Amino acid sequence: MFYLNNTKYNILFAALLVFLVLIDLGQFFLVGTPLVPFLFCLYCVLLLHHNQHYIFLVIMALLQCLETFCFYNFFSLAFIYLIPVTALALFFKKHLYPSHTYAIILALIGGAIQTYAVEGYFIHLLPTIHYTLIRISGTLLITICFSLTINIWGMQDNRG
Q: Smallest Cα–Cα separation from 38: which of 58, 57, 16, 59?
């Protein structure tokens, strides 16, 4: 497992969070629509690999709320997809064996809820098929990359 007590990882994690929030918000100003929610993908991966220090997950959830406030002018709109994903992740951790597939499932469920429930139902933005395919593909790719990276951070080398 990857431990956040190490100072090197804390600085790296804080820099990564700031970088991902800037990328997510930069998509709004440059592209007009968030194609890949980088911060949400990292949130899904850390839900399954993170055993301690839930303060980082709370900070990430608040940053998600800040993003929805910037995009849609509703601060609590992120909880529509964060609460089910968090509950499902807790179920996966408690009742199932660890796997990289669960992070991908969580990201896809959260992305679908965000695309169809938040944007489609509450905001009344009907997504096109191309937008949905790009978003799902990007979410899958980024979640797999984050999952493999965090798995590598937890590996112990053979040096004594």
A: 16
* pTM for the model: 0.75
Give the span between the Cα atoms of 76 and 112, in whole angstroms.
Answer: 18
Q: How far is CA 120 from CA 9, 56, 65, in A?
A: 38, 30, 18
Enumerate residues 6+ apart whose C-beta is below 8 A from 153: 2, 9
Separation of alpha carbons 49 and 104, rounded Å: 13
What confidence tens digit (pLDDT) does each residue in 31-52 have?
Answer: 666 777 888 888 888 888 766 6
Spans of the chain below 50 pLDDT? 1-3, 157-160
What are 128's two structure tokens? 């096109």
Describe the crossing of helices 55-72 and 79-95 by its angle, rounded to 10 degrees: 150
End-to-end CA distance of the chain: 18
Q: Say which residues have a Cβ less than 8 Å from residue 102's Cβ, sequence separation at least 6.
A: 48, 89, 92, 96
